[in-house]
Design goal:
283 residues; alpha/beta; seven-stranded mixed beta sheet; five-stranded antiparallel beta sheet; 8 helices; 14 strands
Length: 283
């Protein structure tokens, strides 16, 4: 009712029941009354002795993200794990952090984007001015093309087999990471097609409408992810695994279970939570 009629202290609701029409007063609900739940941004687990799973829910908060993944890869190296699963089935974030994470799993040259087309407007004038030496104007767009570069040297770079889990909620930076894995690594992608097409709008700008006061968002750029083919398809998996309704209702990670079976088909499924990576690295 709040979404349809607006935010009020209370609502008078008229409804029909077995003994006739009744009216009830229902108090309005404040946003602060809703429970707040925020999943960990990153987590490291060991589903089996020779398998590590790094789950990335968001590519955000660089101050915490970068130290965590560096410590995590140190733990993985110390445990001499041969198989790494990177779960990016949810969330998005900053493209720079996809670059950082990817540098831990490859020695090959790579780039986060093949091309970026920025619509020329008053909104983008200053931004384009700063990048004018890196691209060129083509009609209504300023085009930035990227070439693969050598990854940052990592003493704890992972050298084993990599599996990347994707699904319909793999979006934004997560979809970018999936495209990089597809284009520039030998990683096996397991799960479902990513939710974001390989050619997509990006770089949101917020506007306030003058009469209604409502806020709207519009994109300023078009991103071409690595090895992009069209603006309809996302990154498709090498091994397709479908989530059933039962999986979703029971919060079962079918992608992860299936991947563990691919790696070690004859073993059980007991997941060991890693210690705090930063602490474990020191130990």
């Amino acid at each position: 009712y709040r979404l349809v009629y607006g935010n009020f202290e209370s609502f008078e609701i008229e409804f029909a029941c077995s003994d006739g029409i009744k009216t009830k007063t229902v108090k309005g609900t404040h946003w602060n009354q809703f429970p707040k739940y925020e999943e960990e941004m990153l987590s490291l687990t060991f589903p089996e002795k020779d398998i590590a799973c790094l789950k990335v829910n968001r590519f955000r908060r660089p101050g915490k993200f970068l130290p965590y993944i560096d410590s995590a890869f140190t733990v993985i190296k110390n445990r001499q794990v041969d198989n790494l699963i990177i779960d990016i089935t949810e969330g998005g974030g900053f493209s720079d952090l996809t670059d950082s994470l990817f540098s831990y799993i490859t020695r090959k040259s790579y780039c986060t984007l093949e091309k970026k087309m920025i619509r020329i407007s008053r909104e983008t004038k200053e931004f384009i001015e700063e990048l004018k030496e890196e691209g060129e104007r083509n009609g209504e767009y300023f085009i930035l093309s990227r070439k693969p570069v050598t990854p940052t040297a990592r003493s704890n770079r992972f050298r084993g087999k990599v599996y990347v889990l994707t699904g319909p909620r793999t979006y934004s930076a997560s979809s970018m990471f999936a495209a990089m894995a597809r284009c520039y690594s030998d990683a096996i992608i397991v799960g479902e097609e990513t939710g974001m097409p390989s050619i997509s709008n990006a770089d949101l700008s917020r506007y306030k409408l003058p009469h209604s006061g409502m806020h709207i968002y519009t994109s300023l750029s078009i991103y071409y992810l690595p090895c992009a083919e069209n603006d309809k398809d996302g990154v498709k998996p090498d091994v397709e695994v479908k989530m059933s309704l039962e999986d979703l209702l029971n919060d079962t990670n079918r992608y992860l279970e299936y991947t563990v079976d691919i790696i070690n088909p004859n073993t059980g499924k007991q997941t060991e939570m890693a210690a705090n990576p930063a602490t474990a690295a020191v130990q």
